[in-house]
Design a protein that fits this description.
Blueprint: H1 2-8, H2 10-33, E1 35-37, H3 39-49, E2 52-55, H4 59-63, E3 71-72, H5 78-81, E4 93-96, H6 101-112, E5 118-121, H7 124-130
Parallel strand pairs: 1-5, 2-3, 2-4, 4-5
Length: 138
């Protein structure tokens, strides 16, 4: 009986499974990539907890403007230069990129390397700028 129902309603069953998977995907993705912070939350964490900002954009993107006092390690160099961040393992690290999508993978890499407080800047540097926060080219 149940098998007949599944056969007769195969399209609906597939639709239900796919839509359920799509609803769960953001939860699964956020676990591996770390929590996201809005620009306001990031500013509070920088000011109150002395958080480190790690900008993983390419040098050309960085030179157009970046968050003041951010450290720059391009995405392609993270694995090689991870030791530079070891002294910050106890501090919160906010990873920024152009949109927030590249930062998610770096958050996962940092977590695997033993960093406990890793956050993704939601919307990246453009969201930071749009929130009225300063950028610098120095």
């Amino acid at each position: 009986m149940e098998l007949e129902f599944l056969k007769a309603n195969l399209i609906w069953v597939i639709t239900a499974v796919v839509s359920g998977g799509l609803l769960l995907w953001p939860l699964i993705r956020n676990r591996s990539s770390g929590a996201s912070l809005s620009p306001l939350q990031a500013t509070l964490m920088i000011n109150r907890e002395d958080a480190i900002v790690l900008d993983i954009r390419e040098p050309a993107e960085w030179s157009k403007g970046h968050i003041p006092n951010a450290r720059h390690i391009p995405l392609g160099q993270i694995e090689k230069r991870l030791a530079e961040l070891d002294r910050f393992k106890a501090k919160p690290i906010i990873v920024s990129c152009a949109t927030g999508s590249r930062a998610g993978s770096v958050c996962g890499t940092l977590r695997k390397a033993g960093f406990e407080k890793v956050f993704n800047l939601a919307g990246g540097v453009p969201a930071w700028e749009q929130a009225g926060q300063p950028l610098t080219t120095r």
